[in-house]
Amino acid sequence: MDAKYANINFENLYNKRKLHVILPVFFVSVIAFLDRVNVAYAGMTMTRDLPWLTPEIFGAGAGMFFLGYFFFEIPGSLIAAKFDACKWIARIMFTWGLVCGLLAFMTSPFQFYLFRFLLGACEASLYPVIYAVLFPRWFLAGERAKAISLMLTSLLIAAIVGAPVAGILLDLNLFGFAGWQTLFLLEAIPALIFTFVFLLWVKDRPDKVSWLSQEEKDYLNETIAAEEEAKAKVKKYTIMQSLTDKQVWRLCIIYFTWITGFWGFNFWMPQVLKSLSGWSATMVGISIIFPMGAALVAQIIIGNHSSKTGEKRWHVAGCMFLGGIGLVCAPFIQSPILSLVFICITAIGVYSAMGTWWSVPTTFLSGAAAAGATALINSIANLGGYLGPYMLGVIKQNTGSTDGGYLALGAMLFISGAVMLTLPKKSAVDIAREQMTEEK
Predict the structure, then answer these.
(1) What is the DSSP letter of 330?
(2) The domain containing residue 350 runs over which residues?
(3) Segment 375-389, tens digit of pLDDT
(4) At 408, which CATH number?
(5) Can you give the residue ranges of the Major facilitator superfamily (MFS) profile domain (predicted)?
(6) Could you give the 3-state DSSP secondary structure of residue 87?
(7) Count of structural domains within the chain
(8) How many CB atoms lie within 10 A of CB 422?
(9) Among 390, 182, 169, 350, CA closest to 267
(10) pLDDT in tens, 90-110
(11) Whole-structure pTM over 0.85, yes or no?
């Protein structure tokens, strides 16, 4: 460490960034997750008021979100990389909040598809901007897996809090609206309000804040710049090179198969558990606290361990294999309690490696190239977000069961883990660190 930074308390510096960067982005992610998956819970009661909502239409509408994501992911990420990432995130929040409220008033399959597509279009580029633009401006390469894992506990916190709240709202009829309508309307409000809170709270670069000392700003700017320069010496990517790179497309395959299993599991799991158990919507919502709580603990442990050891391949692949086991075993289970146990296993598998995974692209990419490639990976993967729910809907409508669908989703996770293990053991960041150490 350079002697001129000897007076910096690095633990305190990380804690400052947790409060002023990770925490507000955590809240954004919680709200985003609630607004994209509330349809999974609304689906338990919507059919009473919407007779046209067949399993196939529900699966297609749930997945339509990801088609909107697909078309607008890369342009949005490149815009944010060039301009102000925080203002772009605020724009995303406000527009998705408006569309979430519109779902309460849908009356036809076309409106269901349209509003879900628009919701995805509005939210498109949110996570790539966070992973590849905002966090690399604030966190060193060795900190990112831990920081992203901590932020992504938001997905599990959202499920833990959102599932029972959704279940309670579905059993109520407030303001003359059905429970599912109340759910969409009330969960749109936080996005609209937090848009303005976020703009005041977060800045996209250390130079723009007053809560860091000048010494701390200099340390972050110089160290991050040195890492980027060392990476560029290994290989400097243009935007076009990053979008056509073989390793980037391997990451696309890994995340596509992962997300197919992830969202197929998430969108159908509440309905499958309710059908199997006969529990009320409220009871199903409360029971989901257990798998999400288990996955929350596992995600923190895996993210911290990956940051500490620098190993990423097996941290991700091991989780994929675990999630695949949970899904493949699901069709053979008839006990509600045992089913909940395997839901816990699957949830740990599909959620826990997220933080480690999203630190992978920035181990060899930076700047606009990282933003574009991360958006490409996420947009291709989100086609899996369409495929997973739709595939289960079609299989259920034609066979009366989701068993075949869960076997297919489990196979996708096994493929994801296997391809993850084909990535190089040493990344450009690892090579860059070795070069920096040798130069010193």
Answers:
(1) G
(2) 3-439
(3) 888 888 878 877 887
(4) 1.20.1250.20
(5) 21-428
(6) helix
(7) 1
(8) 12
(9) 390
(10) 999 999 999 999 999 999 999
(11) no
